[in-house]
Amino acid sequence: GAVVSQHPSWVICKSGTSVKIECRSLDFQATTMFWYRQFPKQSLMLMATSNEGSKATYEQGVEKDKFLINHASLTLSTLTVTSAHPEDSSFYICSAGSRGRDNSPLHFGNGTRLTVT
Amino acid sequence: KNQVEQSPQSLIILEGKNCTLQCNYTVSPFSNLRWYKQDTGRGPVSLTIMTFSENTKSNGRYTATLDADTKQSSLHITASQLSDSASYICVVRSSGGYQKVTFGTGTKLQVIP
Question: What is the pLDDT of residues A31-65, one digit of tens each?
């Protein structure tokens, strides 16, 4: 089946530094990628939707200058957490889908656990 | 505004028992509804998809139902196992444009021996 690879699976960084998370679709063209954040014992919170070749659409309350999303190709999207703070510590997950394939599932990465010290 | 609400928020059941999770949505125009299972620390995995014309669909011990008139779906788990402990997320996709996807808040299920 379709596979989405997310890297790294976990990262620890110091406050004030930036962290880049990659999301790759391994065997299909992902025209749309979604980025989520999940706090402990809570459900997924959609942060932004990105379509290949265009700017990401951010959900209300998500700072686009802090969470930079790039979706330059049909197989790769990146999320960069800039100037990370301890409150940014969370589980970040991406998912990928294809435009026009309404009945195909979203394929999720296995997430990245970010800890900011 | 498109919304997907799930109930209960959390549930604890004994191993071997059955349970039913609920999903109510207000997404329009409706394309399909999918149930995902998310194990702790992992990404969600699709269990089943329901389109407008489908009322019931089974996948092993999981049976999903859809009532498109009342905009409700349920996920029934039969003879629960410890490995069923996870969060179950209802996701509704609308048609047209970029096929907007709306996520439910999830139900956290814990199966205990």
Answer: 888 999 998 877 788 899 888 888 899 999 999 99
Q: What are phi and psi of A22, to 5 degrees?
A: -105, 145
Number of H helices, E strands in chain A: 0, 11
For B52-107, write each residue's pLDDT tens digit. Answer: 888 999 999 999 999 999 999 999 999 999 999 999 999 998 876 545 778 898 99
C-alpha distances in angstroms, A113 versus A23, A35, A88, B24, B70? 14, 13, 10, 30, 38
DSSP, residue by residue, A15-66: TT--EEEEEEESSS--SEEEEEEE-TTS--EEEEEEETTSPPEEPTT--TTT
**How far apart, in Å, are the Cα atoms of B57 and each of A69, B48, B76?**
37, 7, 10
**Look-up of token digits 């969370």:** A90
Spatial separation of the C-alpha atoms in residues B17 and B78, rounded to whole Å: 7
Rounded to an integer, what distance in angstroms lies between the CA atom of residue B111 and that of residue B113? 7
Q: Which of B31, B42, B106 sits opposite A102 (nearest CB)?
A: B31
Q: Tell whether B85 lies on the interface with A, counting CB pairs under 8 A.
A: no
Does A6 sit within 8 Å of B42, measured CB to CB? Answer: no
Q: What is the largest CA-CA distance in chain A?
A: 42
Which DSSP state fits A82?
-
Q: How far apart are the first and last CA of chain A?
A: 37
